[in-house]
Design a protein that fits this description.
- The chain is mainly alpha-helical.
- The longest helix has about 45 residues.
- The relative contact order is 0.11.
């Protein structure tokens, strides 16, 4: 409970609740905001995040209210996820696991953001805990509910992540069937597999139906998702993810350039050693399976982000970090308490020093990441304010680069006649311009589309990140 409260408090203090919304956030929130036109919802996305924020967006458009709501909810989510593991680990080990995960800068940055990755992490951690409880205790019916509901929620948030998470769970269900005597609470031993399948089916049903309505089926949607993501195939993205650990880029696409602030990434190289030591500690405590399975699930859910796409974002690995926090906590707990009594003061001091150093380093990166994110997100609000001064007011349409986040803040519809977010045609844009204002945002060094070249052009001064942009406004 203390770690969860500290997690929420840290978000409210170090990640300002008034920090503007990011690009992806505006897409998810616009789907359930009653006074803002819904932005184009591309094939890779799922509706779970929109449902998560709906209770707030239905009554207010306040970014601060949304951030506070998500900060409190994520703290409660962390507590709940760890509470599921209480029958599998002592409270002290779980508190340390929570501290290690919540202390990461990326966890704190995204705790109050309307993005799916942290919630996949928390719910996935709970689902794995539910699986292990159900496998070891045939009478733990609540664990089956946690497992099924957890996978359903993950599927609602990120269907591909749910499938990757379910693969090692399904494999473990087959292996563990003999270990639990082929029975779970009086039901057939295959009940674990049935619950896994049911969770995926219930949570993924909406996504599947939407796939058939708009993409011709699941395969069609996956194909379109692959196109948007630059092609799904072998891409060794470990180096790309490494470049994002310094907090300077929320999305590394394309991910080129030097690896900066290398000291901020040292913990990544120590992670395999810590996890391996955690396995050894768990084996000595006769609970290796409960340390090994979350690590296998972490590897599985990280596979597409490390090896199948050619770009990176620090948030992609949040589910893996949450699951790896369990064996990491096993390692540090054993180092502090599993040695001879004469050595315990020294080893305990070492653990405290290591964890404190990690937390301090992560806080420095968080400060940098918040500054950069705030600067970029505030530009969207500034552009929207400039457009209002130019007479761009609802009903209105914005197209061009940055149209999605700027359209959200201007309360205008956003549309693109080409690219991955194509949802209109040039003819439709021109027809719209006949009866409502249309604005075309143009990046520096680029020319406006041919239909807008004779429209009045205005500079957009005062931007912190997106400098040099111009807007072309349809004649009244």
């Amino acid at each position: 409970m203390v770690i969860a409260l500290a997690f929420t408090l840290s978000q409210l203090v170090f990640v300002p609740p008034h920090m503007g919304l990011g690009w992806d956030e505006t897409v998810y929130i616009s789907q359930v905001s009653p006074h803002i036109p819904a932005a184009y919802f591309s094939a890779p996305r799922a509706r779970g995040t929109s449902l998560l924020v709906a209770p707030v967006t239905a009554v207010t458009s306040s970014t601060t209210a949304l951030r506070v709501y998500l900060a409190v909810l994520s703290g409660a989510g962390l507590f709940t996820a760890l509470r599921v593991w209480r029958r599998l680990r002592p409270a002290g080990v779980l508190a340390l696991a929570g501290l290690l995960f919540a202390g990461l800068w990326v966890t704190q940055l995204y705790g109050s953001q309307a993005m799916p990755n942290l919630w996949v992490a928390l719910v996935g951690l709970a689902a794995v805990g539910g699986f292990l409880r159900a496998a070891s205790d045939p009478g733990d019916r609540a664990a089956l509910i946690i497992l099924g509901a957890g996978l359903a929620v993950v599927a609602l948030l990120r269907p591909p992540d749910a499938v990757w998470l379910a693969v090692p769970l399904a494999a473990a269900a087959v292996v563990m069937r003999g270990r639990v005597g082929g029975r779970v609470g009086g039901w057939p031993g295959l009940v674990l597999l049935a619950v896994i399948a049911a969770g995926l089916a219930v949570g993924g049903a909406e996504w599947i139906v939407e796939s058939y309505l708009h993409y011709g089926g699941v395969l069609g949607r996956l194909h379109r998702s692959g196109q948007i993501e630059g092609g799904i195939g072998w891409h060794f993205a470990l180096g790309d993810e490494l470049r994002t650990l310094n907090g300077r880029r929320e999305l590394c696409r394309p991910c080129h350039g030097p690896w900066r602030d290398r000291a901020d990434s040292l913990w990544w190289f120590a992670l395999p050693v810590v996890i391996t030591a955690g396995f050894v500690a768990a084996a000595r405590a006769r609970r290796l399976a409960t340390s090994l399975l979350p690590a296998l699930c972490a590897i599985a859910i990280a596979v597409p982000y490390l090896f199948l796409i050619d770009y990176a974002a620090p948030r992609f690995l949040l589910p893996a970090y949450a699951l790896l926090a369990i064996p990491a906590a096993d390692c540090f707990t054993h180092l502090a308490t599993g040695v001879r009594p004469a050595l315990r003061p020294a080893t305990t001091a070492l653990v405290i020093a290591l964890v404190a150093t990690q937390l301090a380093t992560q806080h420095l990166v968080l400060t940098r990441a918040v500054h950069i994110a705030s600067a970029g997100n505030s530009d969207y609000e500034r552009i929207a304010a400039d457009l209002r001064d130019l007479g761009i007011r609802p009903p209105c349409l914005i197209t061009g680069r940055l149209a999605t986040p700027v359209g959200y803040h201007a309360r205008c519809a956003s549309a693109q006649p080409s690219g991955h977010n194509r949802n209109t045609t040039l003819a439709q844009i021109l027809k719209t311009a006949e009866h409502e204002p249309v604005a075309v945002l143009v990046r520096p060094g680029h020319r406006p589309p041919h239909y807008a070249r004779d429209w009045p052009s205005y500079g957009l001064p005062g931007l912190r990140v997106h400098t040099g942009y111009h807007v072309y406004v349809s004649p009244r």
